[in-house]
Amino acid sequence: MESSLGSNKNLIGVEISSSKIVAVCVDESGVLKGSFTIAIEAAQESAEQVVEAIKRAEREFGAFSVFGLAIPGLLNRDTNRVALSTHTPEHAEIDLLNEIESRTQKKIYIENDANAAAYGEYCAGAGKGSKDMFYVTLGTGVGGALIFENDLWHGNSGFAGEFGSFAINTEGLRLEDVASSRSIVDRTKSRFHQDPTSSLNEIGEENITINDIVREARNEDDFAQLMLERTGNYVGTALAGVINLLNIERVVIGGEIMEAEHLVLDAIVARAEELSFAPSFETTKIVEGLLGENAGAIGAALLSKSAS
Known about the structure:
alpha/beta; Nucleotidyltransferase, domain 5; 5-stranded mixed β-sheet; 10 helices; 12 strands; about 35% helix; about 20% strand
């Protein structure tokens, strides 16, 4: 059956996170043709919610037999099962791929969410045209992914690219401990009383969210900007190690925290430049992602060609 969006070459991708499901329809170049987002219901199992999203996708995008699925956590490439997931631990307790395939009767290409987002940006976003790319996602967690010679680098078992686990001091503090949206909110809550002029005081400690911090930073609140600048410093510190180690051509940074745009990116670039070898830094381009919240689902859709 031909897709309702006018092409039988449309590709479908779905990304599931701890808070939402994003579904997209793209053409074979990754150009977005349709999308929708569904909030996660905590009381409902993940597989069932993905199945419901697939049914809606068929109604909106037309019939399909294959789709790509991006999920958070360490994905074992030998078993296609989640070995560990900090933010969605329930995924490690079941064979999510088998559950969804059996209920939808569709072929699925499953991929780690950061890897999928990296592939989306590489093919259709800010990484387009590069040969080698490192991807960073700053959101509920901190993730990373590597693309070498046009292919995702999975490592020995599929666990490569875990940027959030980089230690940034000798006490074992990990990047995700200070650069995820949750950690930024926690750091802000513990310190914003020190600046009574901050507009965040009007929101109240218990109500502050990452969206509040980003919004007030963009509205030139000094304290909110300081929190994001410090986050950028942490990310730039870890990123310098990647640049020095890999001499990578391009770095693309995405995730909800990047809605602050230059307020985070400028700090990342400045710190990375300070700690990188100058010749390596000068040949590395660091840019913001272009695909926003659709990056993971778009990448999953493009990767689904491998399952057909």
